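Work Package 4 report. The design task specified in the project plan requires that, given a folded chain encoded as structure tokens, an amino acid be chosen for each position. We show below one input record used in the internal validation round.
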């Protein structure tokens, strides 16, 4: 991610480690929206 060193504030995580948690959090939020929204909100066919 661009500017990770600036955006991370006091976190000691490198982007290499933080990107996995970020991806997991994004997937969790996406799954929540998919369940809460009728139809195929993310157009993935599910």
């Amino acid at each position: 991610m661009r500017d990770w060193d600036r955006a991370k504030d006091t976190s000691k995580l490198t982007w290499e480690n933080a990107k996995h948690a970020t991806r997991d959090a994004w997937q969790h939020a996406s799954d929540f929206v998919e369940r809460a929204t009728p139809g195929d909100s993310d157009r993935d066919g599910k």
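Residues 4 and 15 are 6 Å apart (CA to CA). Validation will be extended to a larger panel in the next phase.
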